[in-house]
Amino acid sequence: MTNMKKTLGNILIYFMVAIILIFALFPLWWIANISFKTSEEALVIPPKLIYEPTLKNYKEVLFGVEREDNEGRWVPSTKGFMKQVGNSLVVSLTATFVAMLAGIPAAYALSKFKFKKKQNISFFVLSTRFVPPIVIVIPLFVAFRKLGLMDTKLGLIILYVFANLSLVIWMMKGFFDEMPNELAESARVDGCGQFGALFKIAVPVTLHGIAASAILVMINCWNEFLFAVLFTAKNAKTVTLAVMGYVTVREVAWSNMAAAGILITIPVLIFTIISQKQLVQGLTAGAVKG
Amino acid sequence: MKKRLVALFLAVIFCLSLITGCGGGDTPGADAPASDAPTAPEASSEQDPATLTEKDYWRQCEGEEIIFATYVGGEADYVDSLLSEFYDLTGINVTIEQYPEDQLYQKVQIDTVSGTGSIDCFTMDMMRMPEFASSGYLTKVQGYIDNPQFTDKEWYQPDDILAGPLSTAKYNGELYGIPYTGETNILMYRKDLLEAAGCQVPTNFDELWDVASKIHSKETAGIALRGQRGSGMNIYTWTQFFRGFGGEFFVDFPNDMTPTVNTPEAIEATKYYAEILQNYGPQGVANWTNMEVYTGQASGKVAMTMDANAFAAIIEDENTSKTRGLWGCAMVPGGKGGSWPAIYSHTMCINEFSQSKDAAWLFVQWVTSPEMTLKRGLKTGVPARASSWEAPEMKEQLSYICDGTYTDVCLESLQKADASYRPIFPNWNEMGDILGIAVQDVIAGGSTAEEALNKAQADIETMLKQKGYLS
Amino acid sequence: MSLSKRVGAWLEKRYIGCFLAPALCIMGAFALYITVALIYLSLCSWNTTSPAPSFIGISNYLNILKDTVFWKSLGRTMIFVVCTVTGEIVLGFIVAYALNRKIRGLGVIRTLVIVPMAVTPVVAAMFWKIMYDPSLGPINYFLSLLGIRGPEWLGSTSTALISVLIVNIWEWMPFSFLTITAGLNALPKDAYEAAMIDGATKFQTLFKLTIPMLKQVLLTLILLRTIDAMKAFDLVFTMTRGGPGESTQLLPYYIYLKGFQWFDLGYAAALSLVLLLICNYGFKFFINKTGVKVFYD
Fold first, then answer.
1. Which residue of B has its CA nearest to A44?
2. Which of B287, B378, B422, C223 has its CA 20 to 30 A from that of B260?
3. Does the keyword Endoplasmic reticulum apply (chain B) (predicted)?
């Protein structure tokens, strides 16, 4: 009897899981589908579920289109997006590195020490996350012009560091909170100073948390659109821009855009999957304890 | 103490930036051989080799570098591919920056309001041009055209530029740019479906309704028009009906700026627009942009449209369209207020704050010259010069569109199209967007035409009062 | 004593400052500059009729008070935020709770559930838009195969906001799922055993035990997600432009319209500051009221 009930329960669970999975995966499946279709067939309803898949879109996206091919029709981008991939990599990696470098000590201090105005500082850090990006664009634009930071990777890196610092501090503080105070104390007794305690003890102990924060920041930078579009032009263009470049005044190259979308999703997906355990820990480190 | 740390920190960033090569950009064409003698490009030498090689005005800005910002697309890629010719001709280094269209104007806007002038020239939506012109952000170009130091009129043939598009580049009678493209709306219809239903091509709104009702089916909607709100979105196509039913935007533009968007004509037009879409339009049309309209055409979901001519090339393209070869085109139908083919143009403007205005003008001149306009037109199908539309190459190249009737219909439509289609004034975008909200609301069934337009009228009046157009 | 050692010792004494300085300098510089610039701009008229910022005092703020579109957008934003945060967390909780047991393929299923989080938001929005389309998209087509006549989704004033909500929930439900899963895993097992012995039903354990013990996790989630939801712009921008009518016009999009479409930069700056203040005080209130352990010890 209970066995029956259990099986029934399991069936129900599986049914629910199936629905959730369809909801979660359908869009990506559909995008992938389009990416293997010719543009003629991309958006035909009823959709052809059995078709001859083509890699043409991927080839065009990665390596560009021969100019001779586009006789009489408009091909959105003729250059492929390898350069933008490179830009995005450099920008997200560097921004993540700098944000971690600045964020970790701050998080450590907020977690382990008592000092004046700590609450105010904490709230200030958090409040930089409240700022809707659209709000700060105009003042920043003026400043970037003056400093010659327009369309440079450095400019984007600075923006992304700012945009992600509070996330780093937020997450890392949670990890440091979890770390027993005695650990750091014992290090200091052993003759390490506060710096030693941070770098020799606290950082190694919270490596999984650092990884999780770093990955989140990197994903944020990789996917960012608004800053990228307004503060870059040609040299520092990022992948999201390259993908949206398939929407032109005269045409939306659905199948090319789908291929590009899939390509830029893959690295993020891999990272997310590999690090999901750490991500989980990182996101909740502070809260779970409470 | 803190200062030192900051300095250290900045140093780290700086080093990082060196390592990663931040800010480094390759300058295209920098290593191209700089020829001593001015050489005209092949293109212009066909026109008049003598005038060009003799004129040394082309080389007066040698060595300068300019940035041209434009919307993403094959057109920009194409111009990009010919930049070496321009470099050989002038010694000017042009960099093309491409943006999605919305972001292009944001970009230009923040560049001009901050007065930095880093983008030397750009393409501008004709309806946005007045904002920029009235603020003094755009260079007046008539002086350049009239100055033989800068323009060889015989070669440039300014009179060849179509009057409609040219008038869209004017604000308060001053010319602020040169049309980069000349676009209009045409009626596109599925020949096979019209024939099967025994219909003639509609020439007025009654016939249009009749045809739409007859060819409408579950699989293929009778007609599709833009539904999504926006001064350049649903209002762009809605105005054909608004004006066609005899509606006017103002009591007497630009002298009496009292809006008249809730007149009986306006309500009738909006009702018609919404009802024809509700009855014979595709499902979900209230959120349709031009993108869905042509995608619907290409995939066989739509039988008739009154949208931009530029899309005809995609719809008849063998690589992108399932319904290629099935389309015919004609002038847009009209009503008691006449027939109002839309007019749209991207205007090529020069930034008033640019350090290299002369060089920018040479570039504008080159890009909009008869030869280049034709070359670009062959790619896009929307040149702004009469000579391009009449050129045999053009007819030949575009003969696959609507059985070769495309070029004639477009030229006729462009010549008939009037720049006053939508009122050209600095706050048009706000006004058009308010109207767009109303029209979309009616299509989506949120309110009746009367309610929506009364509200729009009130909102527009408030806005115009705030901006000082009305007392 | 060598110089480097002396510098080291000097630094060591001021370790808290040293730890905080880099981060606070970066954030402080940005925040200060942005705030000052915004306050200045919000007191100016800077639009098509006055191309250079000219000082007009607080009249932008007075206009905001009278601006019905602003109040409506604000109300809509609140509805949006409440619905999306609730939806994400409830759905995330249900999935996490359902998967918090030993079933076959658990690892794979968990991985698949978090996939939407990895898709670039703008790309996802682009494709959701066309997927929703009743004529061109697959959703209504597949629904019709099941005998369901799908709604007009983004094309109707009554369903547009819900449709945008669904996409936002789709994208962020995995985040709640991940967090809640972690929270569930960290719960002490003995409490459950005790409850079992007392003969508590599943529902009782869920509401009397699990949810109260997850309070901190849930509050943190609510805070984090609310912060992001207040900024929602990309979805509206890509999918609806605020339409049909004004049915999906959220405050950030209204700011964009005013500033970047209608060129009213002074007014947009004032709106921005108002939004900023609402967020600041709203979140402060939330943190104090709920006692969510964010940065306070």
1. B299
2. B287
3. no
